[in-house]
Amino acid sequence: MKILESKIAEYVGNYARRHGYPPTVEELIRVFGISTIICMMFYILNLYRIGMIRNSLFFGTGNLQLIPMKVK
């Protein structure tokens, strides 16, 4: 996993724990300085593909959930 993707996953998890709900894609764009929503969606899709996040709106702008990873 790339460094930015792991930082995004960590941010989503921490944000959700602090606020009780996950950040929106727009918030992630602002926090990480990504230039377009398409670029941020690329990172979110990669995290979804490897099973680190789940999104019930299928890549909408809300409800990102971090999936706990099992440590060996």
Features:
72 residues, mainly alpha, two-stranded antiparallel ribbon
Can you characterise this structure?
- The protein has 72 residues and is mainly alpha-helical.
- The chain is built from three helices and two strands; from the N terminus they run αααββ.
- Strands 1-2 form a two-stranded antiparallel sheet.
- α1 (3-19) crosses α3 (37-49).
Anisotropy-based shape = globular
Helix content range: 40-55%
Question: SSE order, as H and E?
Answer: HHHEE
Q: Structural class of the helix and strand makeup?
A: mainly alpha
How confident overall, as mean pLDDT? 76
CA gyration radius, whole angstroms: 11 Å
The poorly predicted ranges are none
The amount of beta strand, in percent, is 5-15%
* Spatial order of the strands forming the largest sheet: 1-2
Contiguous helical run count: 3
Separation of the first and last Cα atoms: 17 Å
- Biggest sheet features: 2 strands, antiparallel
Report the count of strand segments: 2
